[in-house]
Amino acid sequence: MSACSVPTVNGHRVLVIGAGGFLGANVALTAASAGERLVLHSRHGDAAVEGAELVAGDLHASGTAADLVRSVGAEVVLNCAALADVDRCEHEPSLAARLNEDVPAELAEACAAGGSRLVHISTDAVFGAAPGPYTTGSAPSPINVYGRTKAAGEAAVVEAAPDALVIRTNLVGWSPTGRRSLLEFFWRNVTEGHTVNGFTDVRFRPVAASLVWRVVAGWLTTDTGEGPIRHLTGAELLSKYDFGRRVATVFDADPDLVRRSTVAEAGLTAARTPDLDVRPSALPDDVDPSILDVDAALEHLSAVAASGYRRRVAAVRP
Length: 318
Ligand SMILES: NC(=O)c1ccc[n+]([C@@H]2O[C@H](COP(=O)([O-])OP(=O)(O)OC[C@H]3O[C@@H](n4cnc5c(N)ncnc54)[C@H](OP(=O)(O)O)[C@@H]3O)[C@@H](O)[C@H]2O)c1
Description:
Layout: E1 13-17, H1 22-33, E2 37-42, E3 53-56, H2 64-72, E4 76-79, H3 86-91, H4 93-114, E5 117-123, H5 145-160, E6 165-169, E7 171-172, H6 182-191, E8 196-199, E9 203-204, E10 207-208, H7 212-221, E11 229-232, E12 238-239, H8 240-250, E13 258-261, H9 263-266, H10 294-306, H11 309-316
Parallel strand pairs: 1-2, 1-4, 2-3, 4-5, 5-6, 6-11, 7-10, 8-13
Antiparallel strand pairs: 9-12
Helix pairs in contact: 1-11, 2-4, 4-5, 6-8, 8-10
């Protein structure tokens, strides 16, 4: 991948909520190396990068999210907290509603009242019932509790904080636990010589979690003329089976270790959308478009792993 400068948001204070999760930890690391002044929130205050302030707090109780925003007083609030486990959302719909709908609504109201700019992370899974492709102008059509609660959270954010950015994405990369991402699933198995199943009937447009901050920072500093909803999705629509084979190729493993399978065979709890053809928004001018290429993203993830990035992500939340 060609070089791409990492814009900062003018040295403003950035509160990262859910900094111990998959995306939060990646943002914490990459925003810290871009020179942002970070305040990292995690439930137990144990997500850390050098130089960042730390703040703890469970957001389950009503009012806690607004208190967090008020007490930190950041210029930018990036919400990476969620109940993002699709099957768990089916089993715990009230918890999903609190974290995916009510917390974003509270954050948006508090940001609007206090003059902070909210960046709320959402998902491509707000689509699926209506046929794609999906643009930022397409109406949400979720097919499971996760998608429905995330769509409701988006709507609440846009209503309460019209200057917010709502970013629908689909992520792959390295996580603090080493087990959060589809990339890690394929990588671990194929590099250890194990055969794994890859769905041929689910297609998506993934982006690397370690590249998200570059784009978000650009969108915060450049007016691209779009509204609050942005799609940070990959340039290519591919099946999870094809993605697994690409992972094997980039990491010098045998692509034939990835076996064709289907969602129907897997017996998962929540319905999965077969074709998440969520078309990417225009990138900020100073971001290299190759950032969205799946092969370039995999090369990037391989290169950063070789230079110790997996260890650094794990250290954000030991
Ligand atoms: N992963 C994907 O492939 C993907 C795809 C599309 C969209 N997204 C979106 O990206 C965002 C981040 O997802 P992720 O994959 O990074 O999820 P994740 O790894 O599960 O992280 C979620 C974070 O939410 C925090 N959280 C959960 N319950 C909380 C509570 N009661 N109080 C305070 N914090 C709480 C957790 O904090 P603690 O760790 O401190 O408990 C955790 O850090 C979500 O909005 C998700 O919908 C993810």
